[in-house]
Structure formats: structure tokens, C-alpha cells
Write a structure and sequence with these properties.
The protein has 314 residues and is of the alpha/beta class. The protein contains 7 helices and 10 strands. The chain has 2 domains: 39-114, PGBD-like superfamily/PGBD (Muramoyl-pentapeptide Carboxypeptidase, domain 1, Orthogonal Bundle), CATH 1.10.101.10; 134-310, 3-Layer(aba) Sandwich (Collagenase (Catalytic Domain)), CATH 3.40.390.
């Protein structure tokens, strides 16, 4: 009677199958470490060849700014040439992050690329975008420009699914279970207040609509985590329901220097679970970079507009 059954572990083959079907929405990863800053590349621009530039290409590829097959296919090493397509990708990145869109790898651009962030690409399948390539006007009277985005083809939960259940996957134990449940509940409550959804925790993670867990490295969903730094979490678009934290990060329940706040990240990833892509409003919860040592748990008007537009609710 002392041991509890652990049947939830055996959901993985099924999840893997589902993952294969949904691969276009997941990120491409080469599981390279991105701990080292790109400092030596500062000032690099089109026409130059500089050792290490391929890491910028990998980064931009991972987050949707370069096509996945951009890099050479010969296997003879990575390409360190700053070509036209890299310049164009850097400009798009700079536009999304409110940087000077010069196409030059200046210090601020390299700094932003080194920040911890969500693993979901900013541009999914070359289609969804943040600030670049779109201006969504909401009402000609106000000339309001929204910066939220959706996944390609606007996947969302069907109208019959207003009550979503969530559960916790076994994964890696990083945060005490009670603390994790408590902050996730708080994050779900925040989305419930501005949407037509309600969220209910269930003990049976197998049947839960939304499945939350901590994993490290390659954990079988085609989107490997990258060790400490850079990618800290990811979640899949509706109606997949998987939401993973990178277990190799430092996590905390309240702001702690050098640690990621669990609730802040949960709030962002729940946005993806519901169908939101990344926003280019830095104050929005759906902005891709994650603050370290701070709490960011207030949904921004842009987040609220995004969810209400996707589901056509007031
Ligand atoms: Zn994200
Ligand atoms: Zn994952």
C-alpha cells in the first residue's frame, strides 16, 4: 500500500505519436548550447565571414527567422558567411524587438538574442509573425494596431470545450508539487478572468486537456531543451495541450535573483495552449523574452485583445 501506481509514465508513446502529427508547430532544434554570448560577433554585417556566425543562423532558424534548411547540407561544417538572407532575417528580428532594423549585428541585438526566452518560434512556418509583416487594424475610428498573433490557420479549442482540465506530468521534480499547483492555478485564473474558459485541475493527467511538466534536453517531442539559459519553456498550440518547463533552468515561486518565476512563465505558455502566438508588445505576457528575477503576471491589453479576438468573445 506504500507505493502509488505510476501509470502516467506510459502516456509517452501516444504523446510521441501526437507530436509527429503536430510537428509543423513545434520548434526545430539542434540541441546546441547557447550559453556563450555572441559578443565576438558584434558589428558583423553582410559580406563578412566570421567564425561563430553559424550560431546566429542556428538561433534565427530555431525561432523562425530563417528556413529550417537554410544551412548547408553537406555536413562539412556550418556556414559562417553573412549573406543576403541572414541580413534580411536579422532585420526582421530587429523589427520584432523594436531595435534599429539595420541588419547589422549590433550590441543590443546580440544582447537580446542572449536573453532567456520561450522556445516557440516568433515566426511559425514562415507565416505567423510578430510586428514584422503585419499591421492588424482594429476599427478605423481608433487606428488601433494590435500586436498579438496566432498560430498559422488559427488553431483553437472548439466551442464545446470551454471547461479545460489540466494535470501535472511526472517529468523532473524541480518545484514542490503544492507550490507548482498553486502558481499554475493562479496563472489559469488570470486567463479565465479575461476569456470564456474555466480551468479545473485533475489528478488524472492522462485524460487532462492540458498537461504540464518539467523536462530536460531531448524529451521526445521534437523540441529539445538547451540546458541552462536561452529556451526556458514551450507549449503547443490547440488542441495539443502539452506545456513543458526546461528543468535545467533555475526556477522560483517568487522573484529570486537569477531565477525564472514559474507563474510568469506559466501565464505565457498558457497563452500558447489557448492559441496565442508571440506579441511584439514588450509589456505583453506574450512577448517572447522572459524576465529573470522578476514577476510579470498581469495580462496586458494586447493579450486580452488577442484571446478575445481569437475566440470572438467580448
Ligand atoms: Zn512563447
Ligand atoms: Zn517539450
Amino acid at each position: 500500500m506504500a507505493s502509488k501506481p505510476c501509470s502516467t509514465f506510459f502516456t509517452f508513446p501516444l504523446l510521441h505519436l501526437v507530436m509527429l502529427l503536430l510537428l509543423p508547430l513545434s520548434i526545430h532544434s539542434h540541441s546546441t548550447q547557447h550559453q556563450e554570448p555572441f559578443k565576438s560577433l558584434e558589428g558583423c554585417h553582410k559580406g563578412q565571414t566570421l567564425k561563430g556566425l553559424h550560431k546566429i543562423k542556428q538561433y534565427l532558424e530555431k525561432f523562425g527567422y530563417l528556413p529550417h534548411h537554410h544551412r548547408n547540407k553537406t555536413g562539412s561544417g556550418d556556414d559562417d558567411t553573412f549573406d543576403d538572407s541572414l541580413e534580411s532575417a536579422v532585420k526582421t528580428y530587429q523589427l520584432n524587438y523594436h531595435l534599429n532594423a539595420t541588419g547589422v549585428l549590433d550590441g543590443k541585438t546580440l544582447h537580446d538574442m542572449a536573453l532567456p526566452r520561450c522556445g516557440i518560434p516568433d515566426i511559425v512556418d514562415g507565416r505567423s509573425s510578430m510586428r514584422s509583416g503585419k499591421k492588424r487594424h482594429l476599427g478605423s475610428m481608433h487606428h488601433t494596431v494590435a500586436h498579438f498573433s496566432f498560430f498559422p490557420n488559427n488553431p483553437r479549442w472548439p466551442p464545446s470545450k470551454r471547461q479545460l482540465t489540466y494535470g501535472f506530468l511526472p517529468g523532473v521534480q524541480v518545484i514542490g508539487t503544492q507550490n507548482l499547483r498553486s502558481v499554475c492555478k493562479s496563472a489559469f485564473d488570470r486567463w479565465a478572468r479575461v476569456s470564456h474558459f474555466t480551468f479545473q485541475e485533475t489528478q488524472n493527467v492522462n485524460t487532462a486537456d492540458l498537461k504540464i511538466g518539467f523536462y530536460r534536453g531531448n524529451h521526445g517531442d521534437g523540441s529539445s531543451f538547451d540546458g541552462p539559459g536561452r529556451t526556458v519553456a514551450h507549449a503547443f498550440a490547440p488542441t495539443d495541450g502539452r506545456f513543458h518547463f526546461d528543468a535545467d533552468e533555475r526556477w522560483a515561486i517568487n522573484p529570486v535573483t537569477g531565477a525564472m518565476d514559474v507563474e510568469s512563465v506559466a501565464l505565457h505558455e498558457i497563452g500558447h495552449l489557448l492559441g496565442l502566438g508571440h506579441s511584439s508588445v514588450p509589456e505583453a505576457i506574450m512577448f517572447p523574452t522572459i524576465l529573470v528575477g522578476a514577476k510579470k503576471v498581469n495580462l496586458h491589453g494586447d493579450d486580452v485583445q488577442g484571446i478575445q479576438t481569437l475566440y470572438n468573445t467580448p
